[in-house]
Input
Amino acid sequence: MFCWKKKTSIALANAFEFYDVAIYSVISVYIGLHFFPSHYFGQHATSIIWATFALRYLSRPFGGLIMGMYADKYGRKAALMTTSLLSGLATLCMSCLPTFDDIGVLAPCLFFMLQLMQAFSFGGENSTTVLYLMENTYAQDRAKTSALVWGVLFFIIALALLTVYVLELVLTPIQMNTFGWRIPLLLGVVNIFFRFYFRTKITESANFSASDKVQVHLRSAFKIFLMSIPFSMLCYLSLFFTTQVIQTLSPDPFIQKILPIGINCSCFFLALLMGYFVDRHSQCLRILNRCCAALVLGSVPIYAIQANGDQYSLIVSQLCLTILLACIIATSPFVLFNQLQGDNKATTFGVGYNCSVVIFGASIPLMVHYLSQFGTTYIGLMLSGGGLCYFIAQALD
Output
């Protein structure tokens, strides 16, 4: 079993790889100017940027499948080293990529291919990391480990937001538009060395048994797919819809920049606290059942409150959603891991989880944009349906 120092290093390596994915959303304005300029793509430029964001997720199930098979055959450590190499190579190429003004339409095409490569890598990385840690943690540390491996991703989002905010303070708008937007990508290249350092320190999972089979346990994969829907929906709602809420909450540019950083940090620390509470006083499955029941029954009222539009209503609704997300973060990884049966666990987990992210995570910006036209209550209804999917999965037992 792993000590906390080793668990933290494994989770950080996974989080640093997620930085490469998260930074795209943070610098999307500059990406649009340099790779999807409005003088060529017209009024559809912004839609194309977010379509690119959604489409890149299509490679995640393939990453989960292929890197999962690699992890099942050659070991968890070997798979994690490979995904670090792939992600690092994509980030390095992206940071040096010529823009639309330099090479024309080839620039967005190359950019999209590198995005697919990053998503492919993280699709294999994240699922293998969860499996690797869950295989090597004590029963009394399951929720804390779950909170660490997925909660630290929100801390990395805050770090990405803070990096761009500091750069925009230090550099002029012209400097930021000329070269400053590349700096966060170059920092992602520096992360490569940290990831490889952490990876070289880990040992192979004690529970690993090599498998030459190319197989997915379909029942387990389908259950993981359904049970991942609440996390996928709530996570990506937090990432994208929160920005709209903050803009409504305050017109102050400082508040609009700082508050997302604070919300993501608070989600991380709340998840750690919840992990400690669950391990000490309850069980992961029991808490996750209650959280998903709260999503089914409470999502519509929460978004109905948010629809009032006043500051108090927005704060209360956002606080409720953040607490629910923290609880789900602290319990989902172990509960999902516990659904695995048979051999080829990395492959099964990677396929089930990443398919859920593709369908119910990547599509969230478009779904929110569409449903918002009819009122935020419909967003709550969508989230309530995600909670029901979790209980449908349990009914399959």
User: Anything to note?
Assistant: Residues 218-249 form the longest helix (32 residues). The two ends are 29 Å apart (CA to CA). The chain has one domain: 4-202+217-395.
